[in-house]
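Meet my pick.
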Amino acid sequence: MRRLPGTTVVATLTVLASVALVSVVPAEAARPGSRPARLQTHPAPAAATEAGARSGRQAAFTEAARRYGVPESVLLAVSYLESRWEGHGGLPSVSAGYGPMHLIDGRAEPGHPHGAGEDPRGDETRPRVIALPPMAADPPEDTLRRASELTGLSPARLREDASANIMGGAALLADYRRRTGGEGSGDDPASWYDAVARYPGTPKRGAAAGEAALSFADEVYATIRAGAARVTGDGERVTLPATPGLSTPSTRSGPAEPSGPSGSSRPSRPSEARAALLPARPASLSGPPPAPVARRRAPAPAPTPAPATKKPTTGPATKPAATATKKPATQPATKPAATATKKPATQPATGSAPAPTPAPAPTPTAKIAMMLAKRPAPAPTPGPDCPKSVSCEWLPAAYKRLPGGRYGNHDRSAGPRRIDYIVIHDGETSYDAMTRLAKNPAYLSWHFTIRSADGHIAQHLRARDIGWHAGNWYVNSRSIGLEHEGYLARGGAWYTEAMYRASARLVRHLAAKYDVPLDRAHILGHDNVPGTTPETVGGMHDDPGPYWDWAHYFELLGRPLRASGGDDARSVLIRPDYGTNSPGFTGCPGGCRGLGAASVWLRTRPSATAPLVKDIGKHPTGGSTYSVYDHAARASTGQRYALAERRGDWTAIWYLGQKAWFHDPAGAPASVRASGPLVTPRPGRSPVRVYGRAYPKAPAYPGGVPVQTLTPLQYSIPAGQVYSSGGKTRASYLRAAAFDPSEHRVVTGKIRYRQIQFGHRIMFVRASDVQPVTR
């Protein structure tokens, strides 16, 4: 079935000045500490008639809400955060979730993470082949079968029928409200806060898990306040009216959190909401609960000091003054036990002081507490480097010496490093498996892992440290790697809105902090990272693949992919409509059934029957294929290419040393005009050699640092061809082959390179071999 356009717009029904109404992130302004959205706003859609608004999928939400007593706004907002109201043809998400309500099949087996048999460092002078360790992933909650029990509908119907799926989600929310003890009228959306927080069904408990649940609930209620409206990929118009004055547990009481970009502040949640979600503390412990692990909560205020007595007991500044009592009070294990003084700190109002009562012998627990109190306090561990608008925890990757002089699973830096790229991956397995693998020193590493169901983030490396994730040491040494729970093509391979939003907020935060441009030349997919030598080109990764919605992602980043040039522009930006663009891939388990995608096919001639263009690196002895895992003849959304020719409904670009054609009709364009720098071979320099990394020449290497061979790839640029270009970069190489980061060396050369968009991947040419293209 051909999909209708899936353009998202935000309802501007009734909006207070404190709510930022943004097309694809309606809740952004309500998030504490978030940066200005800078996203495109749209005029409100025409008000739908009552009959039109209550037909199709909208009517399914209305009926499910009525049957299970769930406020329709709550049901709609939860579904929007999971699927943006899409049915996805009954195909599962990257985390085995089905339908508009993302009902998770807990029996689905996680895939095998990538990395086995390859060198994730991408440095042939110190190759490391990964042997995948055995993993038994912690399965998620089986919300699909729980919904089946609650509704009496079969799991198969809940998977494939969008209306039944919505009914199952409503039943789950009603069940969670009963189990979390929802207070007040069920008609009040605010009384469903804890049930909403419970909905993603993440398997683990603890402070971080609780914070992730509360973060998800915050996002749902911010969406209710802002409202949203869109047409789904299968043509269903759904509207969530804005409720800007909605009061929720996060806005009714408590001290205010930092204000967002709109100037509005959001109070902290009451402790009751957190207590309903975090695990109960053991009875043997007393005192306040520990500070949450997640970054997004503001630190608790310092305790108010006790009033001074008339005659305080002197003692070390790091210990509290002890007062004598007839019977010492029970002390928490984390505080030193009080000891009796020879003279009580305060005197009775009349009469003489009573004789001091000897203190009983310390209990074993008190002895341990006293010993711990004498030790110097450990240095505080820095929190994760995430924006406050996401749920984020610190789960450090392993850094350990291994037999044979090896170490794992990353390189540490003694100071800051230059960061030019942020690389988007999918992990080909579950969040649980990925976060456990990051703790294995024999495996590979990356900086962040993002969970599908709720967008929770785990950070494993500091930005200054180097992950082994991209298979190209030059890119690794200058990038931050983000792994997303999911698969390139397993099942439906669609990604949740919660994951997209959390990832985009994180990338926007990192890009601003480390000055990384928000464009497709610097925000790369793993499938855009070049091979290092001709031998490695064919085995480079293809994730996140064509089902990652780059257009939506860049809208969330605040950099929507729009035309930037006039009719005389010399380059084009690939920009097909994701919902209607169905390239017809092969190779998906169960079939790639009419799914929308972010890629276009490239052909040798302007004809749908012409062969696909050839990639001599990917296929040295054969032609390109239509496999979802084969990017050899594809251009992806957001990539900018030099315009070669136009002929009717077809556009040609320069690609891998040849002219490549894609279907680009005026009625359904697959590209937009774009401006930007272009380069072509200098006279007498063609064919120009192409490189997968920008390394120095041999004379730049000092003694003790092995010279890295400056090996060109199997491609070249003939005279007369033109390619889109980034800025110049000076040749450099980081030698990091020792456990001690003080032994690392940075080699900088005189040669300068230009990054170009050569094929599906970025590559490099010597700046002296090319010249700018002028009109």
